[in-house]
Structures are given as C-alpha cells and as structure tokens.
Amino acid sequence: MNCMQYCCAGFSAAPYLSEDVEQVSENPTDEREGEMGVDEDTSSAILPDSELGTSAPSLRFSKTCLKNVFSVILLFIYLLLMAVAVFLVYQTISDFREKLKHPVMSVSYKEVSLYDAPGIAFYPGKARLLSCKHHYYDHILPLINPGQPGDIECTTQRINYTDPFTNQTMKYALVVQGPRDVKKKELVFLQFHLNGTDQDFSAIDYLLFSSFQEFINSPEKAEFMKDCESSYSSWKFSGGFRTWVKMSLVKTKEEDGRETVEFKQETSVVNYIDRRTKLRSDQLFFVVFEWKDPFIQTVQDIITANPWNTIALLCGIFLALFKAADFAKLSVKWMIKIRKRHLKRRSQVMNHIS
Q1: Where are the annotated segments for Disordered (predicted)?
Q2: Which segments of the chain have a pLDDT < 50?
Q3: Which residues touch 310 (CB under 8 Å, ≥6 apart)?
Q4: Helices first, then strands: H and E counts in the chain
C-alpha cells in the first residue's frame, strides 16, 4: 500500500508542477531589453512542457501507477506461494516420519507343488499308535479291524525331553513325518488307541513344526523339540471322532531379517460309529493331516515412504522458494529504482522552475 500511495501521491504532483511552469512562462518581464531574449527563449523552452502537462504526465502517471500496483500484487502472490511452499515442506517431512513409524503390512503368496514335509509331534500319554498310512486324492480306505494294530507306513521318531517351561517334568513325544505332495492331495491318516482313562475327557495333544528333515538332522533332538514347543502352539483332537486337519503355512519376515514360520489350521470333526460287538471302555482316536492349498503365505512389513520421492519433492519446493525470493528481491529493487527516478525528475523540474 505504501507503494500505491507513493505512486499516486508522487505523480499527482506533476500537474501542479506544470501549472507553475505555465505561470512562470506567462509572466512578462519588465527588466532590461537584454534579458528579453533570454525570457523568450526560456518561455519557448517551457511552453512545450505546459502544453504536454495535460496529456503526457497523466499517461505517465497511469502507466507507472498500474505497473506499481501489479508489482505489489505479484509480490503478495509470491509471498503467498512461499508460505504454501514452506507448509508443503513441513507436511512432507511429517508424512515421511509418520510412514517410517507405521509400516504397512504386505501379504504375498508363493505357489509350490511340494512342501517340505512338516513334523507332527504327538503327546499320546497312555495312548498307543495303531496305524499310520499315506493316502492320496482325499481317498481313505475303509477301516479293517478298528482298535487292532495295523500297518505303520509313516516315518516316526520317539523322543523324551524335559518340559521347557518347568525344566522338571519329562515329556514323551512321537514325531511323525507329515504330507508333502499338495498336487496329489497327499494326506496322513493315523489311528490311536487308549485302553482306559480315569479322566472325564480324553484328548491327545499335538504340535506342528516346519521341517521334519531338520529334526532328523539335528544332533540335539531334545533341544530341538524344546525350542519347537516354546515357539509353536499346540492343539488337541478328541477320542471317538475323526478329526480332519487342513494345514496352511505362513512365513513372517521380521524387521531384523529373521523369518518365522506359523501353521494355520482348519479342522472338521466327524463322529466315529463304533461297530465292535462288545461294549468297551477304551477310546479310539482318528486324525487326518492334509495341506489346504499349494500357496505359502509370506507376511512382511513394508515402509511406503520413498526417500527419493521425498527428496525430489523437497528440491522442487526449495527451488520454487528461491525463485519466489529472487522475484521478490527484483520487484523491490525495481520499485526503489522507479521511486529514485521519480524523485530525480521532480528535483530536476523544481530546479528548472527555480
């Protein structure tokens, strides 16, 4: 607004200056005749300015005033853009820090035809394994002599180790090799028999771990099983039913680069119809293990904040800031130059009048 007042006030004085020039040019001199020629020359030099006083100064006034007004408006616009750029810098940095603190979970799936055979650790207690067979294409043959020992066609390993949570109780585990071929729908069918129990409910505990081969190759199998029991969850299946377990594998990548494995299960339970003739107090347990699908799920945290995009955006914002500052600097210099030029013209006119 100072510039507008300046331009309007400064150039409004131009008509008054021209009127003074006219008054000086119209007053006749009563001096010596030698000075008459000088006055005539002076009046002849000033008269063109007095004739242009009504047109040229007003045009110069309007053009210069409009230029100054537009310069001030542009200056304010660029200051506003600079403020917006500063806000964008702050917002960009804040968003980048927020994305670093809160990574996004990414889930991917990998299709396989053969799984690494998992290990199935059973804790049968007083129960006994009667049979174990591998079947394909979800087809299980009818039971022959249920409750009687049958064929054990699975790879098994028996092991004793101390409870990892108490370090006092000895635990007995029967480790069985799980299914591998998911394309052929391979499954493992096991039958257990419990002769008698004093408990109200009968069940067998089991847990799954990722690789049976790692267990076989481990020199310290007891420590291996203690680590598995500490890392994996355990489940149960009840007597008098056929429990069908469909497994899926989930791998999770930690921030430090480690990879953990977890099993997800879908179970279906079917009642077993006991057709044995004699009334018995024993319990039969039937369980089936099969892969649900050929996809291994991988879960990992991904930081969506891209530092290169952030750097490029900040560079563009800072470039705009510097350009705006440079334009504002040039605009101020130009207005100062215009004011100095106006003051110089005004002083020249005043000196000429005097």
Answers
A1: 21-50
A2: 1-54
A3: 92, 93, 96
A4: 6, 12
| DSSP, residue by residue, 119-180 | EEEEE-TT-EEEEEEEESTT--PPPSSTTS---B-S-EEEEEEE-TTTSSSEEEEEEEE---
For 44-59, the pLDDT digits (tens) are 333 344 444 445 556 5
What CA dihedral angle connects 166, 171, 174 and 179, to 10 degrees?
Answer: -10
Q: Is the Cβ–Cβ distance between 245 and 204 less than 8 Å? A: no
Q: Give the relative orientation of helices 56-101 and 307-353 as an angle to the nearest 10 degrees.
A: 160
Burial of 259 from C-beta contacts in 10 A (0-12 / 13-18 / 19+): exposed
**φ, ψ dihedrals at 28, nearest 5°:** -80, 155
Separation CA 285–CA 43 (nearest Å): 130
Positive or negative CA dihedral for 81, 83, 88, 93? positive
Ranges assigned E (strand) in the chain: 104-111, 119-123, 128-135, 156-162, 170-177, 187-194, 203-209, 234-238, 241-253, 259-271, 283-291, 295-302
> In terms of Cα–Cα distance, which of 18, 24, 101 is closest to 301?
101
pTM exceeds 0.70: no
Q: How many CA atoms lie within 13 A of 36 on its CB side?
A: 5
- Contacts of residue 47, Cβ cutoff 8 Å, sequence gap at least 6: 25
